[in-house]
TrEMBL record:
This is High-affinity branched-chain amino acid transport ATP-binding protein LivF. It comes from Pseudosulfitobacter pseudonitzschiae. InterPro entries: AAA+_ATPase, ABC_transporter-like_ATP-bd, ABC_transporter-like_CS, BCAA_Transport_ATP-bd_LivF, P-loop_NTPase. GO terms for molecular function: ATP binding; ATP hydrolysis activity; branched-chain amino acid transmembrane transporter activity. Pfam families: ABC_tran (PF00005). Belongs to the ABC transporter superfamily. GO terms for biological process: L-amino acid transport. Residues 5-231 form the ABC transporter domain.
Length: 235
């Protein structure tokens, strides 16, 4: 049996639309992958296709040696795929604690979620809609962790958040990845934080992977980012 996630020659989009163009990608347990590209390059569509939220036109997706492309998003989630969407989907009318319990699966516990995000423990009786943007993102991440993912897909998790919150979240991602059992896919338009976190990176343009290599190489050679996708590194 092959461990991990393998996308082979994946072409996908929405309805009749094609966005991803023959994408090949493999992710082993413990991998930290940065996905970098400009607006509209297809990064979200890549994550949506893995989760079963976009339409696969061609190619195959395997998890631990078994095809998953016929499975629903819910079934994929129960097999260990977890998406933190860019839209931070939380239940605004439920409390923090109710949000977490609504999706709890397996051995995941509230204590674990609260030890990762002490701020959520303080706010546990508050409604999701009463939280700040940073707290909502913490809740969105904690909710996904409550489903017990082996593969965590983060879609622009730092977008629009204050630097101090970004630093806290990066520490959480380090903790999540540090035991080497889970893999993390980190999609970012602003590349520096993702590249510092990741071991490996792919660069996307027009729905295709135009470069793949060690994240450290891209940090050391920002001209490569510029050459492949016309993006500059920010600090
Ligand atoms: N639900 C949808 N229906 C049709 N087309 C879509 C849909 N979502 C995205 N697209 C199109 O797919 C292409 C890729 O979008 P995608 O959101 O995957 O890019 P992205 O790299 O994640 O960009 P961003 O940084 O803006 O999120 C774009 O042309 C976009 O307009």
């Amino acid at each position: 049996m092959t461990d991990g996630l393998i996308l082979s020659n994946v072409t996908a989009g929405y309805g009749p639309t094609y966005v991803l163009d023959r994408v090949n990608l493999s992710l082993l347990p413990g991998d930290r992958l940065a996905v970098i590209g400009r607006n509209g390059a297809g990064k979200t569509t890549l994550l949506s296709t893995i989760m079963g939220l976009a339409k696969l036109h061609n190619g195959s997706i395997q998890l631990h040696g078994k095809p998953i492309q016929a499975l629903s998003p819910h079934q994929r989630s129960s097999l260990g795929l977890g998406l933190v969407p860019q839209t931070r989907d939380i239940f605004r009318s439920l409390t923090v604690e109710e949000n977490l319990l609504a999706v709890k699966r397996g051995t995941a516990t509230l204590d674990e979620a609260y030890s990762m995000f002490p701020r959520l423990k303080e706010r546990r009786k508050n409604g999701g809609g009463q939280l700040s943007g940073g707290e909502q993102q913490m809740l969105s991440i904690a909710r996904t962790l409550m489903t017990g993912p082996e593969i965590l897909l983060l879609d622009e998790p730092l977008e629009g958040l204050a630097p101090v919150i970004c630093e806290q979240l990066m520490q959480v991602f380090e903790n999540i990845a540090s035991d080497g059992r889970r893999s993390v896919v980190f999609v970012e338009q602003h590349a520096t934080a993702a590249l510092r976190f990741a071991d490996r990176a792919i660069l996307m343009a027009n729905g295709a992977i135009v470069h793949e290599g060690p994240a450290a190489d891209l940090l050391a050679r920002p001209d490569l980012l510029n050459r492949h996708i016309g993006v500059a590194l920010s600090t």
